[in-house]
Design brief:
Elements lengths: L13 H26 L4 H36 L3 H15 L2
């Protein structure tokens, strides 16, 4: 499936953008922490627990974006008669996201 860059139907508010950026910065910090744990030869289980927390945090960001996309972009497309394409696109990204 070819990726075409699109703008959101309803642009994210500054508050929404900041919340996402803050979450991603926390994830970035967690990843750096895992790198340090590896360098320090820390216990495998402790590292795995941190990796699990990183995955959960990224999933939370992803589900938040999926929810917003569905409520704004897909909803708008349905109302304007372009719902089938938007739903197909959504389903493809949900499949990719849930791998």
């Amino acid at each position: 499936m070819e990726h075409i860059e699109k703008k959101p139907v309803t642009p994210r508010t500054d508050k929404e953008k900041q919340a996402i950026v803050n979450r991603l910065k926390r994830v970035e910090g967690q990843v750096r922490g895992v790198q340090k744990m590896i360098e320090e030869d820390r216990y495998c289980v402790d590292i795995l627990v941190q990796i699990s927390a990183i995955n959960a945090a990224l999933n939370k960001v992803g589900y938040s974006l999926l929810e917003r996309h569905t409520k704004h972009c897909v909803s708008s497309a349905i109302k304007s008669g372009e719902g089938e394409a938007a739903i197909d696109e959504l389903m493809e990204v949900v499949k990719q996201f849930s791998k």
